[in-house]
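Why should sequence recovery work at all? Because a backbone constrains its sequence more than one might expect. Tight turns favour small or flexible residues, buried strands favour hydrophobic ones, and helices have their own preferences. The token representation captures these environments compactly. In the example below, the structure is given first.
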């Protein structure tokens, strides 16, 4: 099959891992930078150009769309879908998962447990704060990644000036309960085609509550409980994501889905677990037998 990875970073670990996994299965692999794709409708038919060449021979694409290029990247994915090219992640799923509040709404509608969360607007934010316990509160910018835009306020009183500053800067954000018993840990589960293919537990570094490996956290492989595995799979299904990373907090009331990432990094999970997520993604494409393959 002819498979393209939609990525702005040819040398990135995740891109290279997918290239090697596809080539090992004798597929024709290439990398297309979405920013160099031109989308068009000509004579009533969708057309896509990469630089100055028509792209019309692909069987499947693997989107690796960065958060800063969500809008155009999702449109590139949607254009491939309109050309009947199989995509491991659909445009709709990318857009839903990138908006944290939207994703919480979708997860709640699907009865997937999440931390208590509220969308903050200009009106009644002090009243919203009073609905949370008097202890620490998490403040999250809606489109942050790798732990950026996540703030821990030690109390409702200390959260108030932070909220006012964000509102003045016209930032969109949510406030969320702090799960103290998680002790700075979370679980990252990778779901491919409705199956958890790898999972790790991440621990924040000393002095930080965020467990992201990009911020110096550590990781170890973990075997998920039945409830944790079910939560990850249900979250992926609710957001209609064929491939995703699901972040889960272990709480006294059971697993809580913290976030769903439509473009999870592969280096941390593959290095930690020794499992090839890339191979699972290629297998997902093969099982779906895209047109003309």
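From this structural description, the recovered sequence reads:
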């Amino acid at each position: 099959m002819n498979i393209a990875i939609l990525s702005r970073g040819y040398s990135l670990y995740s891109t290279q891992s997918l290239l090697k996994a596809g080539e090992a299965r004798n597929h024709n692999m290439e990398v297309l930078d979405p920013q160099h794709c031109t989308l068009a409708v000509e004579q009533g038919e969708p057309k896509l150009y990469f630089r100055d060449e028509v792209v019309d021979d692909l069987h499947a694409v693997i989107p690796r769309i960065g958060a800063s290029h969500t809008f155009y990247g999702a449109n590139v994915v949607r254009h491939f879908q309109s050309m009947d090219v199989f995509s491991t992640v659909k445009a709709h799923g990318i857009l839903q998962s990138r908006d944290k509040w939207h994703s919480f709404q979708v997860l709640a509608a699907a009865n997937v447990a999440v931390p208590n969360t509220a969308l903050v607007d200009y009106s009644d934010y002090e009243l919203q704060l009073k609905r949370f316990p008097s202890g620490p509160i998490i403040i999250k910018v809606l489109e942050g990644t790798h732990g950026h835009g996540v703030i821990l306020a030690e109390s409702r009183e200390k959260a108030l000036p932070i909220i006012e500053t964000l509102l003045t800067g016209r930032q969109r954000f949510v406030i969320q309960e702090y799960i103290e018993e998680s002790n700075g840990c979370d679980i990252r589960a990778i779901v491919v085609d409705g199956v958890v293919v790898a999972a790790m537990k991440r621990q924040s570094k000393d002095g930080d509550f965020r467990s992201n490996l990009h911020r110096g956290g550590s990781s170890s492989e973990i075997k998920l409980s039945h409830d944790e595995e079910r939560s990850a799979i249900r979250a992926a299904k609710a957001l209609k994501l064929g491939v995703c990373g699901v972040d889960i907090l272990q709480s006294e009331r059971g697993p809580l889905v913290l976030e769903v990432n439509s473009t999870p990094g592969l280096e941390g999970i593959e290095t930690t677990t020794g499992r090839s997520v890339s191979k699972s993604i290629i297998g997902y494409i093969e099982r779906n037998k895209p047109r003309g393959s």
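A few observations help interpret the result. The mean pLDDT is 90.
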